[in-house]
Automatic annotation (TrEMBL):
InterPro entries tied to this protein: Inositol_monophosphatase-like, Inositol_monophosphatase_CS
Enzyme Commission numbers on file: 3.1.3.25
GO molecular function (one): metal ion binding
Species this chain originates from: Roseisalinus antarcticus
Gene that produces this protein: suhB_2
Protein name (Swiss-Prot/TrEMBL): Inositol-1-monophosphatase
Similarity field: Belongs to the inositol monophosphatase superfamily.
Enzyme class: hydrolase
């Protein structure tokens, strides 16, 4: 019999594939879009359709698990459960609405503050990234590993433009990396896990649903994921946010050192 993490991984991978089938029907078809309160960005009818399906499918299979999703109103009940689903129905909604390809379905299972199973699926790229705790990271079934690059001046890093502003860095001097960008945070983390980029970083308060699955995939690919101060990430927190994220292979220590210590 497979262990619980392996069974959970099988469950969330199949759910992510089902999410892709729903999202494809809306993609490029001018779905209805609303703006969330407090400048939290857009949400489309596709986000809500995927969220509803995932919650029904996953909680039916694991009724004792908690639920944390970007598109479901949060409550404290998840804090009393031993395991939780952490879900972003469509990560990269703006890209989805614009008809681009770089959006994903991100599903994770947390236990004791740690992610133990993860799936990030990009339907239009036919790319399924997955990992279970201690089981390695994979892309479409093949093993993946992070980059061994440890020199900043040779590094390719995924980040938005604001992240590289001088005021975010020690001595007001951003590191000499080459910056790139992708819309989905989960996809950025998976590209690091795959070794296509040396690191990714964001300094804004970051919701758990954006990073939970990607964090385990990077770690199981041999990388390191922390907040912007180099501190370990914990999941299923009362306020489900991290103080930024730095994820990388061998480059991670050098990037964190450039950021300095927390004040």
């Amino acid at each position: 019999m497979p262990g619980i993490d392996a069974a959970d991984l099988e469950l969330i991978v199949s759910a992510a594939e089902a999410a892709g089938q729903i999202a494809r029907r809306y993609h490029g078809a001018a779905p209805q879009v609303w703006e969330k309160d407090d400048n939290q960005g857009p949400v489309s009818e596709a986000d809500l359709a995927v969220d509803g399906m995932l919650r029904s499918r996953l909680i039916s299979a694991r009724p004792d698990y908690g639920w944390l999703s970007e598109e479901t109103e949060d409550n404290d009940s998840r804090l009393t459960t031993s395991r939780q689903f952490i879900v972003d129905p469509i990560d990269g909604t703006r890209a989805f609405i614009e008809g681009a390809r770089d959006w994903s379905h991100s599903i994770a299972v947390a236990h004791g503050g740690q992610i133990v199973a993860a799936a990030v699926y990009l339907p239009l790229r036919e790319a399924m990234f997955s990992a279970s705790l201690g089981g390695g990271a994979r892309l479409n079934g093949g093993t993946i590993a992070v980059s061994a690059e440890d020199q900043l001046d040779r590094a390719n890093v995924l980040a938005n433009r604001v992240t590289m502003a001088p005021e975010n860095w020690r001595d007001a001097e951003p590191p000499p990396v080459t910056r790139h960008f992708r819309s989905s945070l989960a996809y950025r983390m998976c590209l690091v896990a795959q070794g296509r980029f040396d690191a990714m970083l964001t300094f804004r308060p970051t919701w758990e649903w954006d990073i939970a699955a990607g964090a385990l995939i990077v770690q199981e690919a041999g990388g390191t994921v922390t907040d912007r101060h180099g501190r370990e990430l914990k999941f299923n927190r009362g306020l489900p946010q991290a103080d930024g994220v730095v994820a990388g292979g061998a480059l991670h220590p050098a990037l964190v050192a450039e950021l300095g210590s927390p004040g």
